[in-house]
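Fig. S4 source data, part A: sequence.
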Amino acid sequence: MNRLARHTDLDAVFAIVMHESVLRFLNFDAMTKAQFVPVFDALLAAGNFFVHERDGTIAGVFRSARGEIHTRHVAYISLLAVDPSRAGTGIAKQMMTEALERLRADGVKRVELGVESTNARAIAFYRRFGFEIEGTLRKGYQSPHEGLVDDHIMGLLFDER
């Protein structure tokens, strides 16, 4: 179940986003928990940072923000990450399914996200939901492991049915 993150989630969120297999794909540098606290507080304050609970524990995180005024029909998903010890258990799929259902119910018509061109697994994952690569920002992302890499912009349009 997806829900808004709260202060008591700090330890679990920190463990997920700072894990070496996750951090490389997020827009964070490695940091101590004390350094992460203001980042976490800012995510909470924005009111669009979610955790996914399964079996009473935090299993994943993501951010879902709406555009403003003329782009209010657009949502942006970022920071999607799953606890590495639970990878391959369907958490990412459930988290994304719930997020997209909520966005659609809230009147969103378009969902966007960015993904490193070198992250084939994530690209394939998003394609399964109907996202398409709509553009590429050449050398648009500074990967801590690969240097400058292209950043794909992927979009999903909801049917008008």
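Fig. S4 source data, part B ends here. The domain at 2-157 is CATH 3.40.630.30 (Aminopeptidase).
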